[in-house]
Design a protein that fits this description.
Helix content is 4%, strand content 50%. The longest helix is centred in the N-terminal third of the chain and has 15 residues. The protein has a 22-stranded antiparallel β-barrel. A hairpin with a 7-residue loop joins strand 18 and strand 19.
Length: 894
């Protein structure tokens, strides 16, 4: 009878189950009889709202695989026993949520016992430092883009350009995944797209030893799981204004209108006027007209507008959709800049008894222009930028049995980037006899500048066009061998199609460095990952194999680019095909749950990442003026990382995570100067290296007593010989080549201390006094986000009556910075719809935090007593953080 019951339960669940694609989690546990504490076999454990579940074995154990992130009701039911429901069970990607049911023999017919799950602050099966950001956080926090939530996490820092660095690594060492598919720009590196924050169901951040299924990253993983349509229709409309207060910088003679010129005499104030003026004494600064339809800066509706809608597709069973759109028209706070973004997402999900199919489409269009202080008076000569991204694909998941499923992912990623000057173009043609491109015609003009460095006419002429396509095919097989052992294997193929056309200074008498190519590299990865889960220890062990064929040629000897023949002609060396690059990456992570409240963990791994194809596909012509040569023979970069930590629950609502880490970094992409008569050139190579160690502290409080929060602190020391692959090219050529460092210095992005605190207050709907049925202070929320960070290093310059003397590289520090942002929200009902009005204040204290400093003084707006630069040149707005900004918004949920 028992075997028959188990068989019937298994068959029913197999026929009614369906599997979710993307990055998913797992639920496991045991069902016991309440009085005897004995296991109950054959109990049906079901996730309510989803035809997904399992039945307990003879020992009362069960597991449910491949559950999408979210909160669920889980019920345990069996004939003759009361039904027990556990509400608000949180499922997290790649982790196991453990449940325990106790059923009693049914005395009252139809008796149902409901228990609210207590959110797990400590996940026993985590073997590395990781953080999960839920979708609600993107509504609560004072942020516009999802990546702003990354920068306040432990281990994350930003450099002077706002680029993200993780645990002392360079920018571009983080892999971004959307629904299990890598999204990156293979040419320039980094996240090659953007995604609407309201399209994200869950965002998982792994900064420690990540598993073998993750590759092409040396510092961290950002794993994004997007939302899917539900059984009912839901939607959201939101609008957020631009800054309500004017930026001090977007006006002529801006310094005279701020506290900078307070108390100065008229003669002294003249020093703070705009430097370039016409014959009548008027400033030559002109703010662009954003209402001119013929202008690149034209904006129909300034601000940020978003809409998302989801639910079942009419007339088609088992098919749902999630659609979102966002339009951003931002004039920015810096002069002459603009940023226009268009984001559209569509996801269709179809499911049957054992198959799930998801189709997705993502379109991102961005037109923008950053501010350049040198081009303040001639913005038309400075390039606009355009980036268009299209992603399409499908995800198929097939349930083979209750314990085994596989996933297939196919996708196409296309990014077209254009850096251009409107109305300007140039034509080049290849000269067969000279083996070079020549300029045929151009309407660009040579630029001219003042002695103070301001360009007042002509064009910068740095033109760049890229068309990059990546085709991805990925297959993963997951099998729960038994209740303690889960095996995962996978294969991934990436085929790139990279085209680029670029040139500089397109006018006569200059070296244009014209470059045009099309390359089609291939990447393959295979991995195996085994996860063992026992009561007192967890092991994540895996091995990854990576293969990369750049499909390009290079000189056999990198030190011999050619020779001079008997007639005195330069003959370039014949090139040979570059061998594919391969590497093996072992990874292991271990967790030791001492109690339900204490877990020790440690991880160790080898992490490889191929350099960007920008470093591989540069020109090979050395007979130009000191060129930077691409090197397809460059080796993969390597990081060996170790970490150890402890997670401790404190009381009922608090959890502390303390983590120590060490990274040894070798074969980093660098550039080295070569002198080979009669030419000089710099070659990309693996000459850079580094070392990082640090400690992360994370204290979290789950929501209770009307507030939740987190505190993240990182102490880190990041050293290396160089901070950027181009540093050897820019700083150590010719007579300076021997000055190239052979020791470790503080890297440009090394922040010794980094602290962030986020506190969220939420009052219940009926809180406080009332006016009729209206509670003025009820249903309000306040989110405070405070950051405090030590300054970045810089190399000071000591002026001794104009004689520049440089001291040790990066031996001084920019002053520290701190900032407070807030978001206040009030929700109320209008015509039966939940409507939320909100206020966002960035930089509450209006701090001028230093971002870039003059090397003479270490200050952003002071160049020392010996400088001949004007105040207009010295007071660069990009040297300090954005001033205080107020914005208002309205959100309607339906």
């Amino acid at each position: 009878m028992l075997q028959k019951t188990l068989l019937i339960s298994s068959v029913i669940l197999l026929l009614t189950s369906w599997i979710f694609a993307g990055t998913t989690g797992k639920i496991s546990g045991q069902v016991l009889e309440k009085n005897s504490n004995e296991p109950i076999p054959g109990v049906n454990v079901i996730i309510e709202g989803l035809p997904l579940g399992a039945s307990t074995d003879v020992d009362g154990y069960f597991f449910i695989l491949n559950i999408p992130p979210g909160n669920y009701k889980i019920s345990a039911q069996m004939i003759g026993y009361s039904t027990q429901i556990i509400e608000d069970v949180k499922v997290t990607a790649d982790l196991t949520s453990r449940l325990s049911f106790t059923l009693s023999e049914q005395i009252i017919d139809g008796e149902i016992i409901v228990i609210k799950a207590e959110r797990q602050l400590i996940k026993k099966d985590e073997t590395a430092k990781s953080v999960v950001i839920e979708s609600s956080s993107f509504t609560e926090m004072p942020i516009k883009q999802f990546n702003e939530a990354l920068t306040v996490q432990a281990g994350f820092t930003t450099d002077e350009d706002g680029e993200i660095h993780v645990r002392g690594g360079r920018s571009g060492e983080v892999a971004y995944m959307i629904d299990g598919i890598y999204v990156r720009d293979p040419y320039s590196g980094g996240f090659g797209s953007q995604i609407d924050k309201y399209s994200i169901e869950e965002l998982q951040i792994i900064t420690g030893g990540f598993n073998a299924e993750y590759g092409q990253a040396m510092s961290g993983i950002v794993n994004i799981v997007t939302k899917e349509g539900g059984k009912q229709y839901h939607g959201r409309i939101e609008y957020e204004s631009l800054r309500l207060n004017d930026s001090p910088y977007r006006q002529e003679d801006w310094m005279l209108r701020t506290d900078i010129a307070e108390g100065l005499s008229p003669q002294e104030a003249e020093l703070f006027e705009d430097g370039l003026r016409d014959s009548l004494g008027n400033s030559l600064y002109n703010e662009p007209a954003y209402d001119n339809k013929d202008s690149e800066q034209y904006m129909l509706m300034p601000g940020d507008f978003s809409l998302n809608f989801n639910g079942p597709v009419p007339f088609i069973n088992n098919l749902t959709f999630f659609a979102s759109g966002r339009i951003t028209n931002d004039q920015g706070y810096l002069p002459l800049s603009y940023d226009k973004r268009r984001e559209y997402n569509l996801k269709l999900t179809y499911f049957s008894s054992n198959i799930k199919l998801s189709l997705f489409s993502q379109i991102n269009n961005r037109n923008y222009k950053p501010y350049s202080h040198r081009w303040k008076y001639n913005p038309d000569g400075y390039e606009d930028r355009e980036s268009n991204v299209n992603r399409y694909g499908l995800i198929l998941t097939h349930l083979v049995s209750n314990a085994t499923f596989y996933e297939l992912r196919l996708s196409m990623f296309n990014r077209v980037y254009n850096q251009y000057i409107p109305g300007k173009s140039a034509t080049f043609a290849f000269n067969e006899s000279l083996k070079t491109y020549e300029l045929l015609e151009s309407n660009f003009q040579r630029s001219r500048r003042t002695s103070d460095g301001f360009y007042f006419e002509g064009d910068r002429g740095d033109i760049d066009f890229r068309d990059i396509i990546t085709y991805t095919a990925k297959a993963d097989l997951v099998s729960q061998i038994n209740k303690s052992n889960q095996l995962k294997i996978g294969l991934q193929l990436l085929y790139h199609d990279i085209s680029r056309e670029t040139y500089i200074q397109p006018w006569e008498g200059e070296n244009h460095r014209y470059e045009k190519f099309n390359r089609k590299p291939l990447e393959i990865a295979i991995y195996i990952q085994d996860k063992l889960e026992y009561e007192n220890f967890i092991i994540n062990a895996g091995l990854r194999y990576d293969y990369c064929d750049p499909k390009h040629t290079m000189w056999p000897n990198l030190d011999v680019p050619g020779y001079i023949d008997e007639e005195g002609n330069w003959i370039a060396s014949d090139e040979v095909s570059v061998k594919p690059k391969t590497q093996l990456s072992p990874r292991i992570g271990m967790g030791f749950p001492v109690t339900d409240r204490t877990v020790f963990y440690t991880s160790y791994g080898h992490f490889y990442q191929i350099p960007s194809y920008l470093e591989m596909y540069g020109p090979h012509k050395v007979d130009e003026d000191q060129p930077l040569i691409g090197n397809p023979a460059i080796k993969p970069q390597k990081t060996v990382a170790f970490e150890a930590g402890v997670k401790q629950q404190l009381g009922k609502d608090y959890a502390l995570d303390v983590n120590f880490y060490f990274k040894d970094i070798t074969n980093l992409a660098g550039s080295t100067y070569h002198g080979f008569f009669p030419y000089e050139y710099t070659l990309y190579d693996n000459s850079d290296y580094g070392s990082v160690n640090g400690i992360d502290f994370t204290l979290t409080k789950r929501f209770s007593n009307m507030f939740s929060g987190s505190i993240n602190y990182t102490y880190s020391v990041a050293k290396g010989n160089e901070s950027d692959p181009r540093e050897g090219y820019s700083d150590y050529k010719r007579s300076n080549a021997h000055l190239r460092p052979k020791t470790l210095f503080y890297l440009d992005f090394d922040r010794r201390h980094d602290l962030s605190t986020s506190i969220h207050f939420a009052l219940p709907e009926d809180f406080g006094f009332s006016i009729g049925k209206f509670h003025p202070i009820g249903d309000t929320q306040l989110n405070l986000l405070f950051t405090d960070a030590s300054g970045l290093p810089y190399t000071p310059r000591v002026d001794d009556a104009g004689a520049g003397i440089r001291v040790e590289k990066n031996s001084a520090r920019i002053p520290p910075s701190y900032n407070l942002d807030l978001k206040f929200q009030k929700r109320f009902k209008v015509a039966g719809l939940y409507t939320t009005a909100f206020l966002v204040v960035n930089n509450v204290f209006d701090r001028r935090n230093p971002v870039i400093v003059w090397s003479e003084t270490g200050q952003p707006w002071d160049r020392g007593q010996y400088t001949s630069s004007s105040k207009d040149r010295i007071y660069n707005p990009t040297h300090v953080s954005e001033p205080r900004c107020f914005s208002l918004g309205l959100r309607i949920d339906f």
